[in-house]
Amino acid sequence: MIFDARSVPNKTTLDADICIAGAGVAGITLARELINAGVRVCLLESGGLEPDRVTQSLYWGENIGLPYYSPDVSQARFFGGTSNCWHVGTGGRQLGARLHPLDPIDFEERDWVPFSGWPFAKAHLDPYYERAHAICRTGRYDYDAESWAYPERSPQLPLRKGLVKTTMFHFVRREVFFQEYREEIEKAENISAFLHANAVEIETNDTAQKVTGIKVACLNGPKFRIAAKLYILASGAMEIPRLLLISNKVQKEGLGNQHDLVGRFFMEHPHLWSGVFIPAGDHLFRATGLYRVHTVDTVPVLGKLTLSDAVLRSEKLLSYAVSIHPRLCVDPAGRTGATKGAPGITEKISRQFRGEKKIEGFALNHMSEQAPNPDSRVMLSEEKDALGQRRVNIDWRLTATDIWTIRRAQQLIDEELRHAGLGRLHIQMQDESVPPDITGGWHHMGTTRMHMDPKKGVVDANSKVHGIVNLFIAGPSVFPTCGYANPVLTTVALAARLGDHVKKNMESFGP
Amino acid sequence: MVIDLRKCIGCSSCSVACKEVHKVPGNTWRRVHDCGSNEYPERQRLFLHMSCMHCSEPPCLSVCPTKATYKRPDGIVGIDYERCVGCSYCIVACPYRARTIFTRGFDFETRDWDMSRMTEQRSDRLGVCTKCTFCMSRIDEGLKRGLQPGIDAEASPVCVITCSAKALHFGDLEDPGSTVSDLIRRNKTARLQEELGTDSSVFFILPGETP
């Protein structure tokens, strides 16, 4: 059932078994997992069913590190959360988000990636990834390019040197969460979703070892509290650390922040358009259909190039993927003056009127892993929002390792393409300085990272906040590393996993 | 069309949907500009939507030497690609920068393994002027099926039905009972560059103060 929190009487306490703060992808997945599970669930959503500017303004904050999207533009504060803003074309008029699981190597503790390593291997998460596919209402859980390539129509590029391989991406339609699952939650008798309900403070006992309630405030409306047996924060990797740091009445450094980890390790997937794949022949434009969004047996898929595990290990690189886009590109040879002989009159006129010489090639869109970095972080600012809550400052930082991966990956792809006789790569990046046009993909991750050791992570392997018996976190903020995969599938898989854990252990949280 | 700037959160879903459906490169037919300021304490958000305004007095129409630009009885301004010679007069005349000529460079972007389909869809648009059509083919198809533009999704522009914030509204401005007429009546609206006398068909509901 869905209610308007503005109609809740002021200063009341609402009881529930489980309180979930945030009705985005993670929160909705969790709520669905708990439908008819014999528990009373309270789902808090800051916004309404549609956005409004005042609620959205609660996101406002400052970027004090690398240039980044304003936080009120890269998040959506209404039912469905950021799924409302998924806008990758999936074919036809459908928009959505890309899906890909993290690779097995992403879960490993890699000696060349400080702070890497998940508490479990990919094999542990595979059943949940499979469930996540069903939840996302997309095709079978299969990312092997072999399964989706057709030798005649859409073959894999014949890359045989072992440096580079093809991997597939799937898609989730954006309506699934904010529309189709909204209808399920509306009908669920044991779920009470409150719109316009802002979680503004987490209350604890005297030792900050147990959460006793969540304070809720409506803009220009009532204030009330939720008292539950357990609490799950699912409001994104900027809002969760914000709420934990604000909730400092008992634990002065912020809830769960005894080791100064909350808000640190903010990660994005560096996105960058740079470089050109110059194919050996025109036939490659027709032979690269696998690498464009296309449909196989009604399932939209997309192929990308990625580096093999062996090369990641031997070169000590981060995870990396690149998509290729046929374009008329500026000729790198023309730009560097490498054209043989003096230009003829036609060439001169052409340049005069058309600018630089253009060639047919593939523009490269890189998306890679950002290494965990404690100095890349979300923190509280002194500025306050309309509810009197401190806003956030975002200090996004990339290191030379992050940039080196993107540059070195191109060198390896060039080597592989040349070896296969497919063409070559023109690499624009000259060094490890951060390219000015590098950006993110609205993928906020890592700010309450998962680790078995409380000194190295905010949450444990079950997504429970270290040191607090009944506080859990869902969403990409728990990722200790992020691979190159869009975070949606792992978010949904972890939420389904958390749903199982909660259902199995509900009795341990008290009567 | 009525665009409620109080609701728009700048997600650009409308322009992405436009690009996807019409296979146009970049955000050439529809753009969302972030005109706000994120500087404390003057924070203000304003996302301005730019596309063809389907003017009642379109400056692009009178300058067209081949009469390729035309206005339909329902007010939609269209371009006859058979007549257009790509002279660009209309591009200069349009005060909203709504028109684009696709050159081979743009066309190449969409080169696809399914070349026949793409060539079939796009070849008529090469070298001629193009712009937002208000998805007139969707509207016409919908009307044939008895659907109502602005009410039924299948008879409405894709930007309208894709808008995350439900900030875009479409309908008959001549019908006082339509949603768009009602919104204009009940809210403070503005049109861009009204002083030019274009009598644009796109109305913006203005945002108020944000705390």
Q: How confident is the prediction overall: mean pLDDT of chain B?
A: 86
Q: Count every helix of chain B, treating DSSP H or I runs of 4 or more residues as helices.
A: 8
| Biggest β-sheet description of chain B | 4 strands, mixed
Q: Alpha-carbon distance between the termini of chain B?
A: 28 Å
Task: Describe the overall structure.
The complex is a heterodimer of chains A (511) and B (211). With 511 residues, chain A is α/β, with parallel strands linked by helices. Helix content of chain A is 24%, strand content 25%. Chain A has 13 helices and 22 strands. Chain A has helices at 25-33, 53-56, 104-107, 122-135, 145-148, 175-187, 236-246, 283-286, 309-315, 332-336, 345-354, 400-420, 488-505, and strands at residues 2-4, 13-15, 18-21, 41-44, 61-63, 88-89, 95-99, 164-173, 191-195, 198-204, 211-217, 223-227, 230-233, 271-279, 294-296, 299-307, 320-330, 358-368, 377-384, 390-395, 423-426, 471-473. In chain A, the strands form 4 sheets. In chain A, strands 6, 7, 8, 14, 15, 16, 17, 18 and 21 form a 9-stranded antiparallel beta sheet that branches. In chain A, strands 1-9-4-3-13-22 form a 6-stranded parallel beta sheet. A 4-stranded mixed beta sheet of chain A has the order 2-12-11-10. In chain A, β6 (88-89) and β7 (95-99) form a beta hairpin. In chain A, α1 (25-33) runs parallel beside α13. The radius of gyration of chain A is 24 Å and the shape is globular. Mean pLDDT of chain A is 93; it is low at 335-343. Chain B has one domain: Alpha-Beta Plaits (2-Layer Sandwich), CATH 3.30.70. The longest helix of chain B is centred in the N-terminal third of the chain and has 10 residues, at 13-22. The A-B interface holds A 50-54, 56-57, 60, 62, 70, 72-73, 76, 84-85, 87, 89, 92-93, 95, 153-154, 285-289, 292, 294, 325-328, 358, 360, 383, 386 and B 6-7, 9-13, 16-17, 19-21, 34, 38, 40-41, 43, 45, 104-105, 108-109, 111-115, 158, 162, 164-166, 207, 210-211.
